[in-house]
Amino acid sequence: MFETYSKFTNSLVDMVNSSRGLNRRTRNALVPTEVRKAFKDGAKLAVELGLVLDTVSEMSARLSGGKMLATIEDAMFTRMGDEQTGFFSLTTDSGLEEQKSPPRHFNWHQALYADEEVQAVLYCHSPALLRAANSHSLPDIAVLVDAAELLQAVDFADPEAEAIATASKEASMLLIPQHGLLTWGADVYETIVKAEILARVFESM
Length: 205
Known about the structure:
- The chain is α+β, with helices and mostly antiparallel strands and 205 residues long.
- The protein has helices at residues 2-20, 24-30, 33-48, 106-113, 127-135, 148-152, 161-167, 188-203, and strands at 58-63, 67-71, 85-89, 120-124, 154-156, 173-176, 180-185.
């Protein structure tokens, strides 16, 4: 009986979602459940670490077939779920869900995904990171010698996709004045770890 009820409930959910965008089966085909879970858990972790300004920050992850899973415009990290994310092209302005708009700085994500090794992108805004970006100051490597390699890979960039694409070739994190930190890596967790380390170093300055 419970199984019948569960199937009925899922059918209702899919019917409602079909009028809004992709149904559950299509979403599962585009992005495996474990990937969606990692995305949601990563957003929660970023909130807990104080790295994001809820509806201002952005996150994305590369999918197969030239697509990305990304937070939509004004997505709430504190309520991250399917309704806060959408499927978008890595190279064009198209999305798979007409009613969902890509993140404000969608072209930054696309610029970084031009490098096939980039699997995830995080745009974040802890107070320490914002201060550093706006003061155009980098930490002294001696502050944390064990993180010297990571700290040496931080640079500044203007807030244009072309400038970000160019700067990212020599860096692994970019501070963007009047915006925040842009970081990328092999998965969502790597982007968060790098952002957290940098934020803690700046807090100690």
